[in-house]
Amino acid sequence: MKTTNHSMVNVLCMKWGTLYPPDYVNRLYSMVARNLSLPFRFVCFTDDPDGIRPEVETRPIPAIDLPVPPGRWLKQRVFVSPLHDLQGTALFLDLDIVIVAPIDAFFSVPGEFLIIEDWKRKGRHIGNSSVFRFEIGQHSDLLDEFRQQADAITRRFVNEQEYLTDFMYRKGVLHYWPEGWCVSYKHHCLPPFPYNLFRNPVIPQGSKIIVFHGHPKPHEALLGKPKNLFKQMRPARWIADHWR
Q1: Tell me: the pLDDT tens digits for 14-28?
Q2: CA count, 13 A, side-chain hemisphere, 117
Q3: Sheet order of strands, 182-184 included
């Protein structure tokens, strides 16, 4: 929805390189449009807008001087100020998610910065940045610190989501989404071995967004992609009902 009305919320995503086709952006927009009743702008930061549906606003990935190789640590660029013509509250969504329930509540739950708490490392201030919310223009100090300490930061942290969570924790604004809103397909939907051999993947009760970190991706999980006996999975046919 192309408007500069500040009462609208912003939904952001990022597509860089060839890992994801434009169809992933188009499906994400469609899922948001069906599950968000608030007026919104949907913006994709990308190096190639070709094939992205016209309802999606495309913007170049912010070109800022960061001392990292091209294509790495890109998400933190959304904290640049100004961020193109965007203002207000923004919900960032990875492309490899499936929305399975209404998401209005992601804009109303209290907190200055919200992110997924890593499912396997609870209590260690480590987040998963597949879904996070922030106020546009309020955290450019993250970029200032990164420029000054890039070597030390990239040695200490495996990836940008670990650094992002640590920074917001030190700043005193870190909050996590309510338990069960954002779930991992691998950890919460797939039955453990040996049940994966004869039980279908499920949508956990109360979940709103399913995150496909690593593999399988949604298109792989939809069909089932056996690798070995322990990693074998039955097709998750319900993905087709939501990922469209």
Answers
A1: 999 999 999 999 999
A2: 15
A3: 97-99, 209-211, 182-184
